[in-house]
Amino acid sequence: MLICFLVTSSLSFLLLLLKSRPLKILSSRRTCFRVSLVLDRHRSPVPVRPLRLSVKEKMSPASGADNAEESKGGVSPLLDLPELALECILEKLPPDGLLSMSGVCTALRDRCRSDYFWDKHMKQKWDRVVGPSASKVWQLGLASRRDNGDSNQGKQKGLLRLFSLVWPCSWAGERINIGQDRTCSLPHDSSVMSWYIALETGRFWFPAQVYNRENGHAGFMLSCYDAELSYDFQTDTFRARYPPHGRRAMALETGVTWERLRSPPVDTSPHDLHLSDCLKDLCPGDHVEIQWRRNKEFPYGWWYGVVGHLESCDRNENYCRCLSSDAVVLEFNQYSAGSRWSRTTIDRRNHREEGNEVDGFYGGIRKLRTDDEISAWKRIWPTGLLE
């Protein structure tokens, strides 16, 4: 009798233990597993799909009890982490991870949309091609939408739904369906996140400059022209719209690579003369850019050249007096020596626009002061001399 009683009691105790303990153990292990997935995603060079599971809390039917336990608590396991640990995790998330995480709950939405996290992604990807002129266009667009906001609220909501259809979640063809989750609606405001999304989806055409426009057309080699750019995330290239030149229609170029782009270095319209502030300092060997246009109807482009010696100079650096002369020689060594485009002279003291309808018109000059600016031109140097 005593033996039977002990066996029965032991079995009852074990059954009670098995009913109560597995859920707590599973919940603890699952919480650690989710946090590790977020961190492991950034140790691997390839995005890991389980992050979506931790964000959306998609689990197998067998884990329904675990979901119920977390729902009853009302707090995401990530929010149980110390403030600094959570911030470190969010800092390591890529843009699509931040956007997905913002749909988990209100607390994470506000954190993940903070400019603090998105500023880093803007600088890493867009800083070299998106400059002050693009920012100005973006802010003007926001101001215009705010002015019309009261009468066009329905249209604003339509734009948000449109953004939700084109935002790339993983840059590998996967997309987020924002319409099924109100907490994951995309912002359309002055936040850095909103600006990043507008650039990434290609819906925002921004001003920039393109080296060797129109697929390296021979007439534009070693030049840089203003254009409006739109990003194509599927090919990681850009579309470029060039303003009409004279009677020519607007030109459209596709497949423009990152290496051919830069933000405008000066705030000068392509139709205005740039006021040169370096003329008195120019000496042989300096690298420069000079505005040039075919005729008065054309906008300016920037062309690369080098300051050369006067014909009267023997090129001996100990006796060179080119700096003291009012005449400055500009050499364009991408052209053959006999070409009419290979050399021109400007007036150091009274330089304005110089030229004619045959050779074109030379405008303002910029002196290149950094190795990065010079190397950008060297990378696109033509394989042979131009005529």
Automatic annotation (TrEMBL):
This protein's encoding gene: LOC115734127
SUPFAM superfamilies on file: F-box domain
Domain of life: Eukaryota
Record-given protein name: F-box protein At2g32560-like
Endpoints of the signal sequence: 1-22
Gene3D superfamilies: 1.20.1280.50
TM ranges: none
Keywords carried by this UniProt record: Signal
InterPro entries attached to this UniProt entry: F-box-like_dom_sf, F-box_dom
Originating species: Rhodamnia argentea
Domain (F-box) ranges: 75-121
Pfam families documented for this protein: F-box
